[in-house]
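C-type lysozyme inhibitor domain-containing protein
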Amino acid sequence: MISMSPTYSSVLRQGILSTAALAFAGLTLSGCEDRTAGNGATALPGNDTVIVEDNDTVRNAAPPASGTALPALIPPAPGEVGGLPDDREPLDESPIDPQSVRGAGSVVERYAMALEQGRFADAYRLWRGNGASSGMNAADFARSWGQHSQLRVLIGRPETGGTQTAVVPVQVYGRMKATAKPFNRIGRLVLARNPERYKPGSTTSPWLIATSELAERGVVREEGSAAPLASAAVIPSAFRGRWARNANACSAPADTGELVVTGSELRFYESSGRVTKVTPDGARAVRVSALYSGEGQDWAAERRLEVSADGRSLMADDMTRVRCG
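Structure:
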């Protein structure tokens, strides 16, 4: 686990992501059924309307040849257009009360995992009205998820929407199967309390998805593409190296506080982050946005790195480490 508590700056729940998070996808989180609405728009279940670039272009674009390796996707980072709010408040890692607003976030996690694992019926039942609020029947809901070859979702901090509702920010990105075209959608899921939960002996979910509100916004870059930010996604050499909690830890066989910094990666004891953006923050400091994975979870976060004047120590997440070697 990372030595410091992760933040919500685009962290998916306390780690919900992984292809699990993929789950959310589609032209909306309720599904991806194509319903033409006119003027080039696509009407979606859950009262969402998303503008698509050019239906004919998308429909006729040729997908890559079978077996062709596609580059990794780099979604908009927290605070960027199309990204989640840049929320740096540490995650509350205490036990979650299922009835609380954080419990609503847990339901979103279950929804994501069910979709990722192909348990579409389970995902469908997490919509209010035994799936009816998704705007689709169960068969159409299941078919809709076959339109994506790659899907990822980032989840922001759940917030109260009133006494009976909760709002969960979401960012969905990935590729369409027919064209391999990347997409990014940002918005929220609104969950409502489930009155059935309060009946004696009930085992139903305390929260159910009521609506999804997503819009096309932001640009997903492909790793290796000549995007404007590509040259900025490199950590300067002054910060690179192996860093430990103290000099003795440098020779320890397993240092749980170790941090290895390369030009494109931050490696902690049980997680690693692929750098997506580096921004100068003073004479000897940078802010590094990265996509992290570890212990079966994926998330995105920003960290501030500050190196000492002599280059022998590094401050990261309020923890000072010394250079090894």
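The chain has two domains: 21-222, 230-323.
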